[in-house]
Amino acid sequence: MSEEIVGYTVASDSETTREENFPEPEIAIGIDIGTCQCSLAVWNGSQVDLIRNTRNQKLMKSYVTFRDESPSPVGGVTNQLSHDYEMLSGASIFNMKRLIGRVDTDPIVSQASKTLPFLIQTLGIGVKPFIAALVNNMWRSTTPEEVVAIYLVELKALAEARLKRVVRDVVLTVPAAFTRLQLTRIARACAMAGLHVLRLMPEPAAVALLYAQQQNKNKNMVDSGSEKIGLIFNMGAGYCDVAIIATAGGVSQMKALAGSCIGGEDLLLNTMHRLVPDMDSLFSSHGLDEIKSMGILRVATQDAIHKLSFQRSVQIDVDLGNGTRICRVIDVEEFEEINKGVFEKCGSLITQCLRDSKVVKPEYIDDVILVGGCTSIPKLKKIVTDICKKNESEIYSGINPLEAAVRGAALEGALASGVNDPFGSLDLLTIQVNAHSIGIRADGNRFVPIIERNTTLPARREMLFSTAHDNQTEALVVTYEEGDDEKQVLLGYFKVVGIPPAPRGVPEINVCMDIDASNMLTVMAGVVMPGSGTRKPVVPLMEVRMPTADHDGHGLCADALTTSLGSTLDLVTLHNNKLNT
Amino acid sequence: MAAFAVFRLPEVFNHRAGFDHPKHLLSRRISKSRCCMRNHASKVKTASGRNYYELLGISVDSDPQEIKESYRNLQKKYHPDIAGQKGHEHTILLNEAYNVLMKDDLRKDYDASIGHVRVRLGADELNMGYSTWNGPFRPQALFVDENACIGCRECVHNARKTFVMDETTGCARVGVQFGDDDTSIEVAVESCPLDCIHWVEREELAVLEYLNIPRPKQGYGVFGQGWERPVNVFMAAKTFKKHLKQEQAESLRRNVRQDVEQETEAQAQAREKASLKLKMERFAGLWEWMKKV
Fold this sequence. Notes:
The complex is a heterodimer.
Chain A: H1 2-6, H2 14-17, E1 29-33, E2 37-43, E3 48-50, E4 60-61, E5 63-65, E6 74-75, H3 84-87, E7 92-94, H4 96-99, H5 107-115, E8 119-121, E9 130-135, E10 138-142, H6 144-163, E11 169-174, H7 180-192, E12 196-202, H8 203-217, E13 228-235, E14 240-248, E15 251-260, H9 264-275, H10 279-282, H11 288-308, E16 313-319, E17 325-331, H12 332-338, H13 340-357, E18 367-371, H14 378-387, H15 404-416, E19 429-431, E20 438-442, E21 446-451, E22 459-467, E23 475-482, E24 488-496, E25 508-515, E26 521-528, E27 542-546, H16 554-565, E28 571-573
Parallel strand pairs in A: 1-11, 11-12, 13-18, 15-19
Antiparallel strand pairs in A: 1-2, 2-3, 2-4, 5-6, 5-7, 8-9, 9-10, 13-14, 14-15, 16-17, 20-21, 20-23, 22-25, 22-28, 23-24, 25-26, 26-27
Helix pairs in contact in A: 6-7, 8-15, 9-11, 13-14
Chain B: H1 2-8, H2 11-14, H3 22-31, H4 36-40, H5 52-56, H6 64-78, H7 80-83, H8 88-102, H9 104-113, E1 132-133, E2 140-144, H10 154-158, E3 163-166, E4 171-174, E5 176-177, H11 182-191, E6 197-201, H12 202-212, E7 215-217, E8 226-228, H13 233-257, H14 265-292
Parallel strand pairs in B: 1-5
Antiparallel strand pairs in B: 2-6, 3-4, 7-8
Keywords (chain A): ATP-binding, Nucleotide-binding
InterPro entries (chain A): ATPase_NBD, HSP70_peptide-bd_sf, Hsp_70_fam
Organism (chain A): Tagetes erecta (African marigold)
């Protein structure tokens, strides 16, 4: 059963060393892999504990440094940086969460290729980018999955040392904006690290679970039945998520979920561009000197942005080493003006989420929950509270913005491992929704959603399709997921064969999609001939676990499908046919 | 995994047919005497055997709050996070039922599809009766005066789709209005040895059916507790209506005075509903008093 969820076999040493007869269920640990920082937590039997590393840190920097001497490479869990510049020398790979599962036509990738110290080569044809770290003046290739896996191995070792047991099951938090392709990449990295993923849960879902637990604790004074509406706004270095939840009696029910790939990194890059307008061309060759000056600029800008959360203006005075010296003052107004686009996007995510959730008025929101490092920025606080018509003093204060996600993940880990708490602290549940619409291509290259976004999970939906041509005996079911900005990502495809020859529009092709609680998508298809009396399928049904697409080149693949097959295997929708709404 | 595949695949096509939940019927029977008003209405079983109301264990007149609560409680039992993968199928059904019943338009369509139309008292959403309608509304409806009924089962025998026997009270009652053809209904009405099956105006049906349900009565120590209903349900209905009219006139007068105070539609609806329920409760006390006199 365990391997089936991930979709491939986990071959790891831990399999053999693991004791077969655990007296109690193994409690899955919660991991929050952040773009910038990671943390680890576990249910200790009565509450959630954060696991600290040897340097007593709860939050560990996310990066992996490649080097020649053994043990190579090391990650931010064990490694101690003498200074931030060390991370920016080109030998360390970071920001993996923004790169994993993306193709080189993605603007996020091309933007990163121009601004990160390590090498990201893009061809712009829809294949996986080439990533390399600088080791001994040589670019050594790696992949985002490998980097994440190396990091996870360190986390696993740390957890095993602290808990004095084998760690295998994990619950990871992921951004809501992640497509299924990105999720499989993360699961793949976990498998490489010998970890078994119980759940990949959106960060807001984890926060919702923690919130439900806190509400449940406080319920004895108020009536337990009263429902509280909460808005979760989570913005870290790489991603931004918004969710609307309704919580009562330990159950958090998600009403809407939205996410986008915007975060602190964008704020940083925008500000860097303001300081050095020709930055992209300046650093494009990735020479040693350029990497160094880019690192200096990055650190200085990062510092300035942090300070701007607490003071009105900040003085930047750095020598980039290449003859350029930057000496200027940036105040809060200028910072907000530079990043207007990012802040607007945050606002639109919240309003979209409110609209989707059908919470009639922002006044109905009881609690505004801010999570993630970026939410200490005053402007963001103001955006969220303005939309929700609250004062800044009314922001929910019971949650640590940097630890909420990992604590929620640890709770989910305990739940999914089947732990029972005699005191009812685990009498919890988050009912999640699907963040992206999933559908197939039909009606002449149109995306027809079958499971709409914000559908409660687990979900199953069916739709009837038919052939586009007379005597068409085969049809191609191409599954897409709607990602950020209405862009569709190819998840996979399969052929339905053996359709009896008939005029177009007559055979009924039933396409059914099923998402289970661990967010596993299965697409099923069957052919029925109307008028044959029975509703039995004429050929064996197809059951395909998605995504099946080639992860490394799904962009290329999508184009190839359209150009080489054209419309010969097309499907059309049968009018008004949603079987179950 | 193989077992799952076998179980799941036919679902693509038969998922409408296969579901049945005998457990719910059982629990209904037991809880009947405790809260009879809530459960009678959802008695109608559709041909498909799957009724969203039964699935969620709620009555057809449940308001969104009740649906939500029941849904969450069931989710806590069946959600795969708690029950494991075996909860998958059931949770999908729960989600589907919740999705339909929480949206007013979808719920209306669904109610129509299972042959249940909520009888309304005027424009109010509150449903107090228990019988459902087969086919279009007619000006007159059937009503069994359960005080007079001796439980002879004649009517159930003659028109079994219309009349049902309530075993807990030992009386017959109307389950579905016009569930059978007109002649068998005619025969059934005629066959009643006590003539306790009445043709009543449709508008009066809800009130009569509400008052006809036995309610717990206030006891004194261990004495006098139990269940009772008005001795003359028609008289009780008349009195209730009179009170209602008075109250309405009263509130009308009050409204004129308080015109300045604005009220949203939802608020007004909620208030109306609450006040009507209160009145009902008060009235339950009233006929208790009437009997003593």
